[in-house]
Amino acid sequence: MAVQQSAGPDPYFPDNGDSRYRVHRYELMLDYRPGPNRLAGTARINAIAGRVPLTEFMLNLADFRIGRIRVDGRQPHYTHRGGRLRVKPAKPIRAGAAFTVEVHWSGNPKPVTSPWGGIGWEELSDGALVASQPIGAPSWYPCNDRPADKASYLISVTTPSAYAVVSGGRLLTRTTKASTTTWVYEQSAPTSSYLVGLAIGKFQTVLLGDPGPGGVPQHGHIPAHLLPEFSRDFARQPAMMELFQELFGPYPFEEYAVAVTEEELDVPVEAQGLSLFGANHVDGARGSERLVAHELAHQWFGNCVSIADWRHIWLNEGFAKYAEWLWSERSGGRSAQQLAAAAHRLLAGLPQDLRLADPGRRSMFDDRLYERGGLAVHAVRCALGDDAFFRMLRGWVRSHRNGTVTTAAFVEHVTQFADESPAALFEAWVYGAQLPPLPTLQDAPRTFFLGRRRSPGPETSF
Question: Can you give the pTM of this predicted structure?
Answer without folding.
Answer: 0.94
